[in-house]
Amino acid sequence: MSWILRMRALACVAGLAASVASPAMWSAVSSARADEIHQDGPTTLAIFYRAKPADRPAFRRYLLDRELDRLAAWKKGGVLKNYQILYNPYVDSETWDAAALLEFPSYAQVGQWQAIEQTAPGGLDAAGLALARPVQTYSLDLRWTEGGGDPNRGIYYIINYTVGNDENWKKWDVSFKGYGLPQMHGWIHDKALISYRMYTNRYDSGDRWDELLLLQYRDLAALGQRDAEMAKVRAELARDPNFKPLIDHVHAFHTEGNDVLGVPLVK
Questions:
Q1: What is residue 187's three-state secondary structure?
Q2: Which one has a higher pLDDT value, 122 or 161?
Q3: Signal: is it a keyword of this entry (predicted)?
């Protein structure tokens, strides 16, 4: 898929600026212009880690005791702007055990991270690499976000989407804005969801997917009511004649990967 089309899609974000707010710890995507992102490069990295089941408890403890301090030091030194570690609460051989989301002040700082990777692959030291391995790294652009408050609370429901080709991308972009964004806005309005963040994968690297959606649920109880909340908001939106046709057609433009739960790790 042409990543130029993805960058053109970012231009649509400006029109959402009045209604879309950014979580407090993450950059306001509504202020970024597509041509600026095109020239400089993506400023978010997602690194996914996999551990053996027997090593999961020790790896989680390592992330809490050591890796969060390392990330905090890199932030203090100006390499990182923000960071987050999400841990999969379940063993799943098809997905990942932990994910690090790293936001950089500028694309130049991404180059500094590449230097760190020479001696600390995936940001892990020798102790971390003995417990898990970084399996994929993705360069991401933040497209859409809404909600506020502390991103390191609640539980995340994480979905990746593969759009596939340029023609599907055009249809997906239109349908997601008309179908997906109103629903998530409704979930936030109902206080089931704290926030969402949608990222676009800039480069065709790793296991292929095009979009990564992070849904931050208030707590486990709110996540448990996910299906009921989706049905409620869709029924309300279906009264709009512009929304109803999208229900049957939006899924024709993409495929959905394995969904993953992520619990934020905090000191």
A1: helix
A2: 122
A3: yes
